[in-house]
What does this fold into?
Amino acid sequence: MKRFITLITLVAALLIPSIATAQRMPAKASMKLSQFKAPAQAPARAEEEPIMDVPEGTLYDNMYASSFAFGLGWGDIYIQDVDGGIGKVVEGTDGNLYIYNPISQGYIWFSILPWIKAEPAGDGKYVVKLPQLYIIDVGDPYYAYCMHYDEELGMPVVEEEGEIEFTWQDGVLTQLGDKFIGLCDATADWFYMADQHIVYAPQTDEITTLPEDMYVQSYTMTYLSDPTDLTKTRETVVSIAIDGEDIYMGNLNDNNPDSYIKGRLADGKAIFPTRQYLGPDAYYNGHIYVLTGDAYVDTETYGSPVFNYNLNDEIVFTVDEDARNIVAEWPAAMITNVGPTTLSILNDYVAPALTAFDEVPAVPANPVFTDEDITINSTAGFTVLHFTIPTVDVDGNKLNENKLYYNILLDDQVYTFDPETYIGFAAAMTDIPYKFQDNVNFDIYISNGRHTVYLYTTEFDRVGIQSFYTAGDEVNRSEIVYVNNPTHSGINEFTTGAQVVDTRYYDLTGRELPTSPATGLYLQRATYSDGTTATTKVVK
It folds into this structure.
């Protein structure tokens, strides 16, 4: 659990509330650190570049990372035992050791994470000589510095120069001593993020997958959503498979849809042990586990009511005779979590009640896509689409979102998202899952149920959206909803005759920025004198 602290010695650049929610994983975002504290504008030295690509050598991937860390949240500085991060180490062909993302809280801020260099010191030891250029964020350089803890101040302080020693033995990286690796700006001003006692070890937990040819039944899982009103619920669709006395549950985390937890059936109960591993989640840079516990409404710790948990060894469901209903009564809860021990919650399912979802072939309702939902940036050569994919069929019946997809068509050809252009895609894609988001470059993202998609072309006469549903061993498609290219109809989005009366800038989470960044990736929304608006993603 994160423990929040108030640093009275800091200048009032950060407003630190006395009480804040501590257990939730911060939503990952691509944003500018200067939203919190103005960085030094001095450029990185010409000969310096951060190490962003995997160095040449032997890669030790998907390691299990732990540390003790100071971190920066929205207006909060906290301390946390970090457990379950994704670590990587490269034994370089140049004889050096390269360590991936040693400042663990960095994943909150940066989509692509950096490496630092450790030089050999003999006897299996390596030394990280600091400062090192860590990352350049929207044109501003940030450095990894050596820091030591100051008892009087109650916080780490920066050393002008320093070294941090590690051992590298039997595939385990272990920091020696108590120094911190901290994130600072170009003037060595600390940015409130720092780690010590860093350990990267092989991940030995295994992901549970289904035996071959098992029948999988979809279930609607309803769970409590509001600690102030225990009648309010949310829904999601999960997968259940039963093999004799074994029962499997999947689709508990969107980024690990094919991973399952395994339980046992006995005496009308389904019992799932805690701390089951779902796999790595690159979005949160963490190893994801399912924990179990008893929920309670905590009205004291964080200043407002939240669900909190006493962790236990298992969750017990009651199963009816034909397994159509599988119910765990309050206060039972399942939690998807980064790491198996310290609460860093992604999703919590309180009093989960599962009802079999009978999937039948269905034609999905048409996408919602109009002339106002397309923006062409002819100068930069890209197109922005906004649309909604309904999660019901043409008769208004609910669909299983896990089996809902869509295509984008330029004229009459299905558009392919190739990984050379779309750096957040692991492979070429044409059929896009309803829940898919590009968490690297935000070329596809979902906000309030509405999809935004970037196409890196403007050369088409019309663009279409079509959804399709794969339930019941059939593929049924909606109609294609087309919108014409406005620039091909003699209308240019920037030369309509209307004048721009207001321009605003936003990061990719929707948070408004005070000015247009000099470099980086952000959204620009122009409002015209005729009341129309146009939003574009700007890359500088």
Q: What stands out?
A: The chain has no helices and 39 strands. The longest strand covers residues 57-72.
